[in-house]
Amino acid sequence: MTDLHRRYGLTAAHSEVVLASELIQPCATLDMGCSNGRNALFLSQLGFQVTAVDNNPSAIGALQSIVEQEGISNLQARVYDINAAALDGSYGFIACTVTLMFLDPARVAEVIADMQRSTLAGGYNLIVCAMSTAAHPCPASFPFTFDQGQLSAAYAGWEVLKYNEDIGTMHNGMQMQFATLLARKPE
Fold first, then answer.
1. Distance, CA of 42 to chain centre
2. Which residue from 47, 69, 108, 113 has the highest number of Cβ atoms inside 10 Å of its Cβ?
């Protein structure tokens, strides 16, 4: 956890974002479903040029306040409905951690396709999302969860650097199965 995270009472950046940042060079980055900005702030401190989007105006307002107070020039936060699947930029890295499970299930495939279209050649997508399988039914009533193999199938043709469907723990201590993918778009 950084001093900035402590100062504003934010949880640490998602562990998969931290791991990805060790591999990916700073670039134009999109944090989809940024909430209070824990991942966006972490990445901005590493030199990434971050656009952080969320559908919650209060969360975006709080993040914009931190950006202004700290004089952060490489992070822009804006309200955006991810269900719209209408990104307007091109990015070297798109992170979407514990976000897809809150979206309209009928829109998730198009949201992923939009992420892929908005990723520069050689760029990366990171997705972490809850699953619900026969062996591990999801204990939460999220609108969307992945089935076994569903996320990896969506990235056919990409170089999959990491993929697992492991048991993980939410902030509230709830354990569930997550699909985790880090993939690189072909050049």
1. 13
2. 108
